């Protein structure tokens, strides 16, 4: 699948997954895509933990409350970050891990799997992420910020309707419709 097909195919999937295991080679390829993402001042603040052991996955999922409906993926990737100052006392950890997550979501779609970016659900005030991190032996100095289930979807993945290109993207000035890009909807 080429990159533009993967971008169009990628949608958040919250349905049930088939029980087929995700080969470790595919998980490694997905994580390599994440780690290839840019990072502010090349601080490489993002780290990843793939889970393909059913017992470990069950223990990590047990901390998610309320549980993610129908989430029975045979694998998952947990995204970790380190808050490291990169430039003029600025930390780009959020941008770093966001780029890594998007790369992984595109790789997941390109390999025929589905996923969903779960962040707010686990990083809210109840700090489910801290219990998940403890379950995985994540050391101090790292924060678990995202949970990505990975598996073959049990049903067709449908994305939401997107606002038309010309209502969200312009050339040379905000709202400039005089220079439309031919071929865009």
Characterization of this structure:
- By secondary structure, this protein is an alpha+beta fold.
- Helices cover 31% and strands 14% of the residues.
- The chain has helices at 3-9, 24-35, 54-61, 93-110, 120-123, 128-135, and strands spanning 46-51, 75-81, 85-87, 90-91, 143-150.
Number of strand segments: 5
CATH superfamily: NADH Oxidase
Poorly predicted tracts of residues: none
Strand order of the largest sheet: 1-2-5
CATH architecture: 3-Layer(aba) Sandwich
Average pLDDT for all residues: 92
CATH classification class: Alpha Beta
Please indicate the percent range of residues in DSSP E strands (runs of 2 or more). 5-15%
Distance between the termini: 22 Å
By DSSP (H or I, 4+ residues per run), the number of helices equals: 6
Q: What's the gyration radius in Å?
A: 18 Å
Name the overall outline.
Answer: globular
Main β sheet profile: 3 strands, antiparallel
Domains counted in the coordinates: how many? 1
The structural class is alpha+beta
Helix content: 25-40%
| CATH topology (level 3) name | NADH Oxidase
* SSE succession: HHEHEEEHHHE
């Amino acid at each position: 699948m080429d990159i533009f097909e993967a971008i169009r195919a990628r949608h958040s999937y919250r349905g049930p997954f088939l029980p087929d295991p995700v080969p470790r080679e595919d998980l490694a390829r997905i994580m390599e895509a994440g780690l290839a993402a840019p990072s502010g001042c090349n601080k490489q603040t993002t780290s990843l933990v793939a889970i393909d052991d059913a017992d470990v996955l069950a223990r990590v999922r047990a901390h998610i409350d309320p549980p993610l409906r129908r989430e029975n993926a045979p694998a998952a990737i947990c995204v970790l970050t380190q808050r490291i100052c990169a430039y003029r006392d600025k930390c780009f950890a959020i941008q770093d891990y966001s780029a890594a997550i998007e790369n992984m979501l595109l790789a997941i779609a390109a390999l025929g799997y589905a996923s969903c970016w779960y962040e707010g659900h686990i990083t809210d005030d109840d700090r489910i992420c801290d219990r998940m991190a403890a379950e995985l032996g994540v050391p101090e100095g790292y924060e678990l910020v995202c949970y990505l289930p990975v598996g073959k979807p049990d049903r067709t993945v449908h994305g939401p309707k997107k606002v038309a290109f010309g209502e969200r993207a312009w050339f040379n000035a905000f709202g400039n419709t005089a220079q439309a890009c031919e071929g865009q909807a």
